[in-house]
Amino acid sequence: MDVGPARLGVRWVDVGPPVRAELVVMAHRADESPHHEVTLGETFPVGAETWRFTDLDMASADEWEVTVRRVDDVDEVPHPPTGHLAQPARLRPYGQLDGAQLDRVETLLGVRLPPDYRDWLRRSNGALPEVGHQVPGVPFTLTAERPLFGVHPQHPAFDLVHAQRVHRDPWLSRDRLVIARPSGGLLLVSAAGPDVDMVYFLHELDMIGPPGPPAEAVRVGKLQPLAWSTQELISRLVPLE
């Protein structure tokens, strides 16, 4: 959408609470496109102007409309939002990680964690679904027995480092990290390259063939893009209740 001197894109929305969105400001005459993660009611810059994230209306987790308005008076009282919100994902974080713990994980993995995924892992250390969760139209289900991995060396089945040896290494290179083993396949995040932080799904029927580059290239070709980031993936998950 056009907003004054720029076009505005929305990478993801999250019903929270609080309601949040990541907005991308694409100025008409600039090389950079800054990203702003804002909560409902907060303002963000668009060139020399100030705009506000004023509403979110959701038909479903994948169909939604964001409303923004230019702020002409910094003291204005914004109108209350009226949009309908979809049911949020019911994920229970395991806790938090500090920088030293994340650095240790990177050492054990032999790769740097993608920036967005590292931040999500820092804030949640994985997540336990309270009920089954799916992305509409994608054949997988996250459950309490098949959560989003965290740093849990004492529980290998839920541990991110252990998951790479068991679930990734037979099929893919270190350019990707398995972040969950739901029923139906694998959830992976790209750890390198132009698609860093993008989340993919690999169907279990495509987890075949010998190890090594030739067969891996075939498997990479089967990866289904799900989200630009882990946070967007979370926002697309729908509880099965």
UniProtKB/TrEMBL annotation:
Hey, what's the signal peptide range on this chain?
none
Q: Taking every annotated instance into account, which residue ranges of this chain make up the domain Knr4/Smi1-like?
A: 96-204
Q: Which InterPro entries match?
A: DUF6406, Knr4/Smi1-like_dom, Knr4/Smi1-like_sf
Name of the molecule in the record: SMI1/KNR4 family protein
Q: Which domain of life is it from?
A: Bacteria
UniProt-listed Gene3D superfamilies: SMI1/KNR4-like
Coiled-coil ranges per UniProt: none
* Alphabetical list of SMART domains matching this protein: SMI1_KNR4 (SM00860)
